[in-house]
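User: I'm putting together notes for a lab meeting next week and I want to include a structural view of one of the chains we've been expressing. I don't have a solved structure, so I'd like a prediction I can at least talk through. The sequence is below, exactly as it appears in our construct file.
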Amino acid sequence: MKKKSLLLLGMLAAMVLLATGCTKEKTCRCSVRGTSKVRIVKIEKGSCDGLSVLQYHTSVDSLKVDTLLCTDYVFDIDSVYNE
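Assistant: Thanks for the context. Below is the predicted structure for the 83-residue chain, given as structure tokens.
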């Protein structure tokens, strides 16, 4: 009986870890091609390398599209903002 309850508890803990690991948000740092602009984009899943286009609305233009080069590399300046 004890072994079954420990096994069940272990399986439950593994499911909780998998569920929380899959929903981890990732911060991507992206440079806009042809300009000196940098965009910070948060994504729920996937890779920052796969992010190549950002579409957004502004108050002046109805829709803008930026072509991006993105990375999820953590920069030293991030420690200033996280503290």
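A couple of points you could mention at the meeting. The CA atoms of residues 15 and 44 lie 19 Å apart. The mean pLDDT is 75.

User: Perfect, that's what I needed.
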